[in-house]
Amino acid sequence: MFVTKTMPTDKRLHEKDKSISFFEMVYEVVALIPKGKVTSYGAIARYLGTAKSSRMVGWALNALNKRPHDLPAHRVVNQKGLLTGKAHFHGKPMEDLLAEEGIEIKDLQIQQLDSVFWDPNSALSL
DNA sequence: CGATTGACGTACG
DNA sequence: TCGTACGCCAATC
Asked: Which residues get their CB within 7 angstroms of nucleic chain C?
């Protein structure tokens, strides 16, 4: 894992620190999503201090797709628990990956979302 | 350097 | 309640 630059707990993440890219901050948070849990783009965006840049989170993950990575990007869904990024997964279907972690999905929609939702803002004690 | 993009979110009808 | 419109902002073209 490439966490050498800064850890999410570093307060600098909440500053206008341009020394690290927005992408890397997203990667840090995504890497910390517990197995069997999911979070949303908006939740990550809020944690990073750019609540209105939720689209950027998706953009970051899109860039991730272009290069080899071991991040649980499948654990990131939209606020409704819908697997909007499924189309971007080339390997095993996103829903399968989640299902293997014990997450129930029906028609690309995560069931019992509240019980599996992982909010970085509270989990990481913002 | 300006225009476009995008795996979202909120507002509005 | 559901579908559509628009804003958002960093990265890319």
From this structure: A 21-23, 50, 52-56, 59, 63
C-alpha angle A56/A19/A51, rounded to 5°? 30
Residue type at position A97: L
**DSSP code of A102?**
T
A75 Cα distance to chain centroid? 6
What CA–CA distance (Å, rounded) separates A22 from A48?
8
CA A93 to chain centre: 17
- For A34-92, what is each residue's pLDDT tens digit? 999 999 999 999 999 888 889 999 999 999 988 888 999 999 999 999 999 999 999 89
